[in-house]
Specification:
115 residues; 6-stranded mixed β-sheet; 4-stranded antiparallel β-sheet; 10 strands
């Protein structure tokens, strides 16, 4: 059964940065597009970004454009999300996921943006 383990979240001030990681196992990581989704308190799952198998194609939700960067290391079966200029509204649990709806996702890593 596929396992996705996220890390790298934490408390950060507005304007700060974080780098999230997701290690994937029991899965052919290099053959699949990967996603980041998030869930803010009291809200549903929201798609953030996805990346193609080669890493050449990357797409972002409007709120992430220009601030977030998705990347992957197929040799390490690891997905990344670099987040810069964080805003309070970015506060959420962030998940890596096999699908854009987040139906198949890890346990998540909490990001809190607060002064």
């Amino acid at each position: 059964q596929v396992q996705l383990v996220e890390s790298g979240g934490g408390l950060v001030q507005p304007g700060g940065s974080l780098r999230l990681s997701c290690v994937v196992s029991e899965f052919t990581f290099s053959n699949n597009w990967m996603n980041w989704v998030r869930q803010a308190p009291g809200k549903g799952i929201e798609w953030v970004s996805h990346i193609s198998t080669s890493g050449l194609t990357r797409n972002y939700a409007d709120f992430a454009k220009g601030r977030f960067t998705i990347s992957r290391d197929n040799l390490r079966s690891t997905l990344y999300l670099e987040m810069n200029n964080l805003k309070r509204e970015d506060t959420a649990v962030y998940y890596c996921a096999l699908d854009s709806r987040g139906d198949q996702r890890g346990q998540g890593t909490q990001v809190i943006v607060s002064s």
